[in-house]
Amino acid sequence: MWLERLRRRLAKPKTSVQLCLLGVSAGLIAAVLIILFRLTIMFFQSLFLDKPDDFTTLPTYERMILPVGAALLIALFAALTGFKHYRLGIPFVIHRIKKHYGHMPLYNTVNQFVGGALALISGFSVGREGPSVHMGATGASLLADKLHLPHNAMRTLTGCGVAAGIAASFNTPLAAVIFVMEVVLREYKVHIFVPIMLAAVTGALATQFVFGDASELALITMNPLSGWHYPFLIIFGMALGAVAYAFNQNLMLIIRTFKPLSMFPRLLLAGLIAGLIAYMVPHAMGSGMSAITIAIESPDDVQFLTTILIAKLLATLFAIGLGIPGGIIGPVIGLGVLMGTLMAFFAQFISPGVDITGTYSMLGMAGLLAATLHAPLAALTTVMELTSSPEIIVPAMLVISTAYVTALQFFGNRSIFMQQLDFQGLEYQISPATEALQKVGVMDEMDEQFKLLYSDDKQQIKESLDALDSQTPLIVHDEENGYRLAEYDLSLMSDQNSNIKYVSLAGLSSQATLADAFDLLKDKRSGAVYIYNLLDNQQIMGLLRWDQIRHILTIRNSLL
Predict the structure, then answer these.
(1) What string of DSSP letters covers 346-364?
(2) Cα first-last separation, the chain
(3) Distance CA 287, CA 121 (A)
(4) Segment 194-252, tens digit of pLDDT
(5) Strand order of the sheet with strand 528-533?
(6) Positive or negative, the Cα torsion across 289, 320, 167, 225?
(7) C-alpha to C-alpha distance for 442 and 438, rounded to whole angstroms
(8) CA-to-CA distance for 560 and 558, rounded, in angstroms?
């Protein structure tokens, strides 16, 4: 009984204690999965590495063989589970939230866990946030599915799982919330914002409890910049915008070029390329976080940093472009830090004697993130959270704005996630009307005052209609016609005769939203649907008419 009350409460597009508690639960489930994922990586790396993600101490032949062997294992596991379950990462999560209310297939997540762990253990240039987001979304989806929650609540909880995944990966709960709103859901609504915020905090606290609150970026020293740097920062932002465009274009070029190859040779090729880069430039191996340590330790070695930047760029493009399961955000952060460190070498002549390398490395990260992902606000909050320095806000806003506008207007750059979705043919765009209706469960708006009659006898139907008031609908059912709405046809009534007309009714589960009802009725612009209990399709719970949906779209502007 309490579950039924919970489902009815969550069908409403409003903030509630119940939704907030479920958001915390989703964040905790996501955090547990991500902690298990990270511990798996750390355990296996500890068997052959002195320090996590530092592959420079490995013998040359081991560095070369490691990615190739991992690619073969990834391909083998994907073949066992079925290559049809190999759509992974943040773009796939965006598609599932937009078109399937965040319901995540289990086999895809298993591929993501195993494949992502193998990729990160073996030194591929991919990030851990892609698998973290995927697993976080799946954990939240399973919670909503287990409780048979309305789909509008499942959509919100999946967003909670994504936020927890980002927060757990980078220890940035606020940036995680903004990322979900700006990139994944692409909307700001208070009733969605609050549970997602709580989930992000839960994810961050849980991972801090296990791994501590230290971050690779905490090693970076921040110093304020004088106003003389601002013209140079504009040039820096323009360069970052151009690099972001080139990065996205080349990544999509690799994806399109190797699309005709089947998955197995594609993954093997990715392993061979990674092995070759590992042979020549071992510092380019690993997630983007490993590049941060290198930039901090050798800020003045321009040739060395440039070599790593180019190698890291190629390693990332081919790993992600050829289908290695991992995230793109981690490598982009590493590339941005390297670019910022290189730009600081020239900017130091503006402020001699002041260490500005750390500041520029953070600005490079923020600008490249904003232009690559089309997430300027998420990039700004990330750099603010990681530095805890108010002095960086103004220069970060300048670099981010310049990089974003340069990439967008001068190069026509689009978010890499949207480009990947378009190429894969995965839908992610829905109309404003559908998006508004997805926020409301049918249980919130259905008419529960109805009479159900199991008969097709016209006289009995007429008597039932006469006994009811004009506001109470009559639903009749028989084996031949199924469920129908019976009512008097007022246009054909006379003093001597009254005709009964029937309206065929389609059925919708109590988990459905108004968007599902809208899809069933939009062609006729009339009619109604009946709502049945998800756990017992013989139990009719209510009736929903087209006129009610139209009224919501035209009157209740708060949803739009």
Answers:
(1) HHTTTSTT---HHHHHHHH
(2) 33
(3) 10
(4) 999 999 999 999 999 998 877 666 667 778 888 889 999 999 999 999 999 999 999 99
(5) 506-509, 528-533, 536-545
(6) positive
(7) 10
(8) 6
